[in-house]
User: Fold this.
Amino acid sequence: MKAKLIVLIVIGVLIIIQFFRIDKANPKVDIQKDYLTVAQVPMEIGKVFKTSCYDCHSNETVYPWYSNIAPVSWMLKNHIDEGREHVNFSTWADYSAKKKRKILNECSEMIEEGEMPMWSYTLMHGDAKLSKDMKTLLMEWLDTEAEKGEHQ
Assistant:
């Protein structure tokens, strides 16, 4: 009887929390401030950025079906907010030259260490996984751009 009550309470709580929705509104995007435009990123590399980075690190998030299910939606929104806080490619032109170099270096390092894209993201977005060759290509691009110090 006690176990049945606990199960009913858990189900009730899961139903109630569905009424607490996340805000899925993306801030407006000014393409003239976007990294891909400012840095004139080659199409092949830009496609990787869009597929593997932009959902969490831009104002162009495409929310998947599971973003409608609490508490998963809350965790997802937290990841997106934290991702944008670290780097938002949609507002690239607003960063200082020093900050841009730091971000590019950190991005390369995170890719090399396998920390980005996050495994939890690639679990549901298989196309975001980076092959060894793609990691190398992306890291070389990021490192070269950081060294050039352009796009400031």
